[in-house]
Amino acid sequence: MRIVSLRNLHLWHRWLGIVLGLLVLFWFISGLVMLYVPYPSLTQAERLVHLRPVNTQMVKFSAGELLKKQTGLKLETLKLAMLNHRPVYHLMINNHWQSIWADNGQKVLVSQELLRASVKDFDASARIENLTKIELDQWSLSTKYDGHRPLYLAELDDLLGTHLYLSSQTGEVVIDTTRQERAWNWVGAVIHWVYFTPLRVQADLWRQVILWTAFLSMLLIGIGFWLGLGRIRIEKKYKNNRITPYTGWKKWHHLIGLAGGIFCITWLLSGWLSVKPFDWISERKLTEHERLQWTGQPLNIKDMALPINIPRNPSLKEINWVNFAGNTYLLCRGVSQDWLLDKHTGRSGKPFSRSVLIQQAKRLRADHAIVSVTALQHGDLYYRASPNKIILPVLRMQFNDTNRTSYYINANTSNIVATYDDKSRLYRWFFHGLHRLDIPPLSDFELPRQLVIFALSGLGIILSLAGLIIGFRRLQRGHVYKI
Q1: What is the CA radius of gyration of the chain?
Q2: CB count, 10 Å around CB of 353?
Q3: pLDDT at residue 280, rounded to an integer
Q4: Is the pLDDT of residue 215 over 90?
Q5: Angle at 39 between CA 34 and CA 41, to 5 degrees
Q6: Phi-psi region of 216 (alpha: psi -120 to 50; beta: other; left: phi over 0)
Q7: What CA–CA distance (Å, rounded) separates 220 from 228?
Q8: C-alpha distance from residue 367 to each of 200, 357, 364, 399 (Å)
Q9: Whether residue 303 has pLDDT greater than 80
Q10: 3-state per-residue secondary structure call for 163-181
Q11: FRET partner for 65 with CA separation of 20 to 30 A, picked from 118, 231, 238, 444?
């Protein structure tokens, strides 16, 4: 018995459709929802909006003074902000957050009183209806919150049904959601990513589920498209001048499958590739070696002092200590911009010169030469992989290594904001290009891009719905093995 026979291909297509058709239908519908409702999170801009301006005059202790007696610390992040009208240092040490008051040098003890004050800082009109401690739930699954766990969930008594998640380590608000946002996500991201808590907490199992369901769904549509091509007649047509032998839902399934089949296959393929099967292609991130070469040294507690005179600035919401080329700077964050301060004088620093950035960039890949340096005012095809990303003027440097590695650098802050090589460039086209249609000329026109996505997803929805109706009618009649 031949496994790959015409009869068996029909049976494979039918049974895969019966088993996976509903999931594929939901994938198309949930993808449209995700165009407008992202998964709940607190973005950098939202977080900064709710912070009070930093009052450096209230700071009595430097972070260096507070940490000088501690040894063996792997200090990854240090920032100064305001909490409950007081200056506070938030530190990421050994992958966990902790906080120290900058006005008295005492460790922050996260109490119910502090949490309620933090909620008031976030929203002055907030009334807490319920405050409970949780490890994780549907909206706090991401590993980026692990350093803050356990979390506190503050349910607010407001018209929006707001829920705020606060860190038990720092007292900060780390996630905000509304009733509408949560409701839409049940038919959006949760279904699209198969992001159900009991499954998602088992990361390896969840990944395998996504890999196999997406792969089998591609097989389902690929077989259907092949079979559909074999039944179409353009010249010697069927009875009544029809190009398809089918009627009713079968006709629509056949014709729409041919019209939208290629899109459905590439869309499922790009979703499958997003889970990085066999580590073929993926986004590129800086390695620890590259970070150290760029910064010149790890964060050093000796450099963690504030200048005596920092001008009062209502836009200053947070101060971060960062290193570049062996020197420490203060990275000031505001809602609309970031800027550097000199750690000695407190004056705003000028953008780093091209020559300084090039000289430091050479350390990133010491065995290879820089072949091009380009100033980009509006990004390029790669440093705009998300249509909603804010594009800053950057300097792009590309090396002559085998993977053609490139770095995108913000000269105002010294930050490497993106990095690409051949694998991540392929990922950009396969995922952002095929899955989100972030391709020229649609990349620059958001409304037309969304209209095209709606049109193509509509074909996928009708195709899936027609296949489900046909399959379940077969089940009802008991004719699932009949061709």
Answers
A1: 27
A2: 10
A3: 86
A4: yes
A5: 145
A6: alpha
A7: 12
A8: 41, 17, 9, 10
A9: no
A10: EEEEECCCCCEEEEECHHH
A11: 118
Task: Determine the Cα–Cα distance for residues 3 and 415; give it in Å rounded to an integer.
Answer: 55
SS3 91: strand
3-state secondary structure of 400: coil
| CB within 8 Å of 71: residues ≥ 6 apart | none
DSSP string, 120-151: HHH-TT--EEEEEEES--TT--SGGGGGG-SE
What pLDDT sits at residue 123? Answer: 92
Closest CA to 339 of 320, 314, 362: 320
AA letter at 73: L
**Coil, strand, or helix at residue 426?**
helix
The length of the chain in residues reads 483
Q: Using an 8 Å Cβ cutoff, are 174 and 148 in contact?
A: yes
The pLDDT assigned to 71 comes to 61
* Residues 431, 425: Cα–Cα separation, whole Å: 10
Report how far residue 28's alpha carbon sits from residue 15's, in angstroms, rounded to the nearest whole number: 20
3-state SS string for 202-241: CHHHHHHHHHHHHHHHHHHHHHHHHHHHHHCCCCCCEHHH
**Spacing of C-alpha 229 from chain mean position:** 38
Q: Is the pLDDT of residue 154 over 70?
A: yes
Could you state, in order of their start, the residue ranges of all structural domains in the chain?
6-36+198-281+448-477, 46-186
In 3-state terms, what secondary structure has residue 36? Answer: coil
Phi and psi at 224, nearest 5°, equal: -60, -40
Separation between Cα atoms, residue 254 and residue 244, nearest integer Å:
7
Whole-model pTM: value is 0.90
Q: Could you give the C-alpha distances from 98 to 55, 83, 89, 150, 179, in angstroms and in order? A: 20, 13, 8, 13, 30
pLDDT tens readout for residues 156-177: 999 999 999 999 999 999 999 9
Q: Which 3 state secondary structure label does DSSP give 370?
A: strand
Checking if the pLDDT of 6 tops 90, the result is no
Which candidate, 63, 61, 91, places its Cα nearest to that of 76? 91
